[in-house]
Structure formats: C-alpha cells, structure tokens
Amino acid sequence: MEIGCGAGNTMFPMLIESKNPKLFVYACDFSSTAVDVVKNNPEYDPKRGKAFVWDLAGDDIPPEVEPESMDVLVLIFVLSALHPDKWENAMNNLYKVWYLLHSMVKLIY
C-alpha cells in the first residue's frame, strides 16, 4: 500500500517490475488531484491496483481496505507533512491496516 502516492511513483514501478502476476497495489493520497493522476496513467489497471483518496490522519481506515490486510506500507515524506497533533491518528490507522504488525504483536504476546 502506497500512502501519499502522488503520481504513483512507487506503485507503477512495482507493478511493472514484479514477476508476480497476482501482485495488487493500493495507492492513496489526501489529494484527489494526485489520485486522478494515478488513475489516468496508461499503466493503471484496476485489476492490479486501486487508487483512492484517504486522509491518513482521519478518524478511520478507508472502506477500500480491510483491517489487518496490508503486508507492506510505503510512506515517503508523508508523516513529516502531518501536523504533530495528527500523528497519533495516523499511527493508529497504520496499525489498523498493517497485517505484519499484528502478526508480530501476536507472536510476542
């Protein structure tokens, strides 16, 4: 999941270079303009990825994503763009979607 996807500069190279035909990448951004850029890219294929608007620091995870379903989260220059008052919400939302973190916590406890 690419959070703060901008133009999809992580999503598209991953999909193009991947040898796994089942790879599916979620891409989200606070900006609807950025999401439109991703969706209008000739490489965008709804069978291999989904782009949508989401405020990471909002109250909950997006409806497009199931809880604890993401194996990898990519956030490049995202947290530094948030006001410190929003960091707790952002971290709570990351915790809700990241499968690996839940698996590690279950192993520890």
Task: Identify the notable features of this structure and list them briefly.
Rossmann fold, single chain, 109 residues, globular, 4 helices, 4 strands
The helix content is 25-40%
CATH architecture: 3-Layer(aba) Sandwich
Please name the CATH topology.
Rossmann fold
Q: Give the CATH level 1 class.
A: Alpha Beta
Strand content: 5-15%
Overall pLDDT confidence = 91
**DSSP strand tally:** 4
Count of the separate structural domains: 1
CATH superfamily: Vaccinia Virus protein VP39
Rg, please?
A: 14 Å
Strands in their spatial order, largest beta sheet: 3-2-1-4
Task: Assign the structural class, choosing from mainly alpha, mainly beta, alpha/beta, alpha+beta, or little secondary structure.
Answer: alpha/beta
Q: What's the helix-strand series?
A: EHEHEEHH
Could you provide a short overview of the structure?
With 109 residues, the protein is an alpha/beta fold.
What does this structure look like?
This protein is α/β, with parallel strands linked by helices and 109 residues long. It is built from four helices and four strands, in the order βαβαββαα. It has helices spanning 11-17, 32-39, 87-97, 99-108, and strands at 2-3, 25-29, 49-53, 74-75. A four-stranded parallel sheet has the order 3-2-1-4, covered by helices on one side. Strand 2 (25-29), helix 2 and strand 3 (49-53) form a beta-alpha-beta unit. The longest helix has 11 residues, at 87-97. The protein is globular and about 40 Å long. Mean pLDDT is 91; it is low at 104-109.
